[in-house]
């Protein structure tokens, strides 16, 4: 199944970004996880249909109201396993 790993840099920790990402994932019907990185970024990995993943990435590029997204890197790949649900892991 199609998957994407997204790393979001900017003011994205301490502003509810991970909880917002979980809501976006539910809205777009993708599965995976999101976590804080030690460098101040937030990283997410999502699995699902490509159109849903494209919309998910677009949402992360915009971010929620209290965040300030400065840079987004995405890596697309195929993943055999599909996680159940979407959760915060760290």
Layout: helices, strands, pairs:
Layout lengths: L1 E10 L5 H12 L2 E6 L5 E6 L2 H13 L5 E11 L7 E3 L2
Parallel strand pairs: 2-5
Antiparallel strand pairs: 1-3, 1-4, 2-3
Helix pairs in contact: 1-2
What does this protein structure show overall?
- The structure is a single chain.
- The chain is an alpha+beta fold and 90 residues long.
- It has one domain (2-81): Alpha-Beta Plaits (2-Layer Sandwich), CATH 3.30.70.
- It is 28% helix and 40% strand.
- The chain has helices spanning 17-28, 50-62, and strands at residues 2-11, 31-36, 42-47, 68-78, 86-88.
- The chain has a five-stranded mixed β-sheet with strand order 4-1-3-2-5, with helices on one face.
- Strand 2 and strand 3 (42-47) form a beta hairpin.
- The chain starts with a strand and ends with a strand.
- The model has no long low-confidence stretch (mean pLDDT 96).
Beta percentage is 35-45%
Overall pLDDT score: 96
How far is the first residue's CA from the last residue's CA? 24 Å
Q: Architecture, CATH level 2?
A: 2-Layer Sandwich
The radius of gyration is 12 Å
CATH topology (level 3) name: Alpha-Beta Plaits
Q: Count the strands?
A: 5
Trace the largest sheet across and list its strands.
4-1-3-2-5
Count helical runs.
Answer: 2
Low-confidence stretches: none
Pattern of helices and strands: EHEEHEE
Structural class: alpha+beta
Tally of separate domains: 1
């Amino acid at each position: 199944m199609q998957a994407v790993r997204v790393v979001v840099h900017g003011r994205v920790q301490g502003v509810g970004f991970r909880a917002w990402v979980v809501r976006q994932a539910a809205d777009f019907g993708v599965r995976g996880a999101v976590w804080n990185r030690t460098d101040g970024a937030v990283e997410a990995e999502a699995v699902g249909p490509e159109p849903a993943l494209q919309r998910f990435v677009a949402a992360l590029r915009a971010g929620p109201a209290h965040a300030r997204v400065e840079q987004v890197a995405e890596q697309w790949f195929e993943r055999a396993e599909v996680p159940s649900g979407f959760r915060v892991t760290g």
